[in-house]
Amino acid sequence: MKIQKFKKRIGLIGFGCVGQGLYDIVAANPHLGLEIGRICVKDKDKPRTLPAAAFTFDVQEVLQDTSLDILAELISEPDEALKIIRAALQQGKTIVSANKKVIAENLPEFISLQQRYGGVLLYEASVCGSIPILRTLEAYYGSEPLLEVRGVLNGSSNYILSKLHQEKVGYAAALEQAQALGFAEADPALDVEGIDALHKLCIVAAHAYGLLVHPSQVLHFGISHITAEAIDLADAVGARIKLVGTIRSDNAGNVSLQVIPTLVVAEDALYDVEAEFNGVEVNAQFAGQQFLKGRGAGSHPTGSAVWADISAAVRGYRYTYPKLCVTNASVVQPEEPITVLLHAPQSLTALLGSLQPIAVHKTEVSNQVIVKVQQEKLLEHQELLKEQGVFVAHLPESMPLAPVLEKFTAVTALLV
């Protein structure tokens, strides 16, 4: 006797880059038992690949449609996305999302709603595109203590940095190329200011360490003020500048987070993460290091992550947050100072007075210094540094500083 197989119907909210990618993937794989049941969009006049009759313009028609098994929230407006996810969970529905800002800022509420009403929220697509990092952290590292999770988490900024190093184009030209290819939005601020990577890092913290961290707690800088001189310096010492997000724990169980442009040497796994690719390195206490790499931007790579979430939800998968109830960790700024490159369009004298650096090394390049400074001072003054157009890049402890400092003249060298 042949068993009839019923398809699971998806309510798709949003039909932009990721929504179109999901639609293409589902249409190309009809044998997997999924179909797009409804599509809701906002703009009635925007040209699309499907006829107007294929869309509804009232999100309530999707939220109230009992024939839909799963909802996919794939819109760009965070306030509206929050309302949609909240409403779906309050109705006990299953919903997947790629909206990392909304999830990072509201994850405690979403966890509570799932526990109260029995709904399910999956959001693998919100972090690192095609890389299954959240599922890996939950399933494989759910019990094991992690020493560090770090990675290139934003494909747009990584594409720009690759262009700056490989082709020596200017920042504006590299950004324009990224926008033309769909890797960066018309308003690229979330990507190039490090905010997108910040949101992803906060989401990772919940699954890697059981910590619910609000983005406002985290030190973060972007690449919008990067200079040709900074690129030249990195190239001269055999390094590449990458926007790196890091979560690290200490022996006392405290956890620190930061997103900051970093000089990465050739021996580092992140060195060869280029263009729109993302890469994540997990360093576990007993399992050691694991490295995952994949496309972090683009319609089909991100759409495939949404598809994976939908397929997992069909099979009954849900996040369990295994470390959430057992962690004793707290978020801190490390006591150890950090070494950073600062490059400003104007004099750094006043800023250095505010940062109170432990050591300062000055170069012949105007307004460029390397300083050793307490991380809490960077966090305290990060908005001022951004307002004044200062590019900030981390020189990690693992990087030999001697070749870098050969290009600088030490004007202050105090013991830590």
From TrEMBL:
Is Ribonucleoprotein included in the keywords of this UniProt record? no
The Homoserine dehydrogenase catalytic domain covers 132-310
Question: Which controlled-vocabulary keywords does the entry list?
Answer: Amino-acid biosynthesis, Methionine biosynthesis, NADP, Oxidoreductase, Threonine biosynthesis
Aspartate/homoserine dehydrogenase NAD-binding domain sequence ranges: 14-122
Respond yes or no to whether keyword ATP-binding is given for this record.
no
Q: Which reaction is catalysed here? A: L-homoserine + NADP(+) = L-aspartate 4-semialdehyde + NADPH + H(+)
Tell me the pathway.
Amino-acid biosynthesis; L-threonine biosynthesis; L-threonine from L-aspartate: step 3/5; Amino-acid biosynthesis; L-methionine biosynthesis via de novo pathway; L-homoserine from L-aspartate: step 3/3
PROSITE patterns from the xrefs? Answer: HOMOSER_DHGENASE (PS01042)
- GO molecular function (one): homoserine dehydrogenase activity
- Write down the Pfam families for this protein, in alphabetical order: Homoserine_dh, NAD_binding_3
Which Enzyme Commission number(s) are listed? 1.1.1.3
Top enzyme category: oxidoreductase
Question: In which family does this protein belong, per the annotation?
Answer: Belongs to the homoserine dehydrogenase family.
User: Know the name of this protein?
Assistant: Homoserine dehydrogenase
Q: What is the organism lineage in this UniProt record?
A: Bacteria, Pseudomonadati, Bacteroidota, Cytophagia, Cytophagales
